[in-house]
Design brief:
Organism: Alteromonas sediminis
Signal peptide: 1-23
Order of helices and strands: HHHEEEEEH
Protein name: DUF3450 domain-containing protein
Largest sheet: 5 strands, antiparallel
Keywords: Signal
Structural class: alpha+beta
Shape: rod-shaped
InterPro entries: UCP028069 (IPR016866)
Helix content: 55-70%
Radius of gyration: 59 Å
Number of strands: 5
Distance between the termini: 185 Å
Length: 254
Amino acid sequence: MSKRTLIASTVAGVFAFSGSAVASLEELNELHKEQARIQKAAVSSQEKVNALFEQSQDLLVEYRAVVDQSENLKIYNDYLASLVADQQRGIDSLQRQIDSIEATKQGIVPLMFRMIDSLEQFIELDIPINLEERKARVDRLRDLMANSEVTVSEQFRQVIEAYLIENEYGTKIDSYQGSIEANGTEVTVDFFNLGRTALLALSLDQSSAWVFDKATRTYQPLGDEYLSSVVDAVKIANGQIPADLIKLPIAAAE
C-alpha cells in the first residue's frame, strides 16, 4: 500500500471514529434528559403520593372523630331513651293515680253528702250549744258542695273540719250570749256549757238561771240554790275568775 493510500485510510478511520463518538454523545445526552424526566416524574409522583397520604391521614383522623362522635351519640341516645322510659313510667303512674282519683271521687262525693246529712241530724238531736252557728255551718257545707270551683279535696277537708268542731263542743267550757224563751217571753242570756254535760242560761241581770232539759228540749228554771254557781260558771268561762269547784245541776246518766 502506498503512503498516500495509507494516509487516506487513516483519515477515513478518524472521521468514522469521530462520527461514532458524536452519535454516542447524543445518545448519552438523551439518556440524561430521559433520566431527568423520569426523576422529575418520580418527584411529582412522590409529591402526589405524599399529598394522598396526608389526605388519607386527615380522612383517617376525621373518620376516627366521626366514629367517636357516633359512639358518644349512641351512648347519649341510650341515656335519653332511659330517661324517656322513666318519664313514661311516671306518666303511666300518674295516669293510674288520676284514674284512681276519679274512682275515689265517685265514692267520696256521696259519702260527703251522707256525712253532712248525719251532721245536720246530730245537731238537731244534740243540746243546742251555739245552735245558730252550727246550723249556718251545715248550710255553708251544702253551698260548698254545689260550688264547681271548689275541689273535692277542699270540700272533704271542710266537712272533716266541721266534724272536728262538733267534737270540740263536747270537751270544752264555753260562754256566749244568746236568747231563750221563758214564760212566753224572749230573754237575752249568757249561756254556759260544760261540754255536752250541761247547758245553762243566766239572765243579764244575773237574777234568774235556767237549765236545758234534754227530755223536753226546753229550758227549765233553776232554784236560787244554783244561781250563784251559775254566775261563777259564766265568769270562769269568760276568764274573769279562776277555775273552782261549783255546784251545777247535772242530769244523772241512765
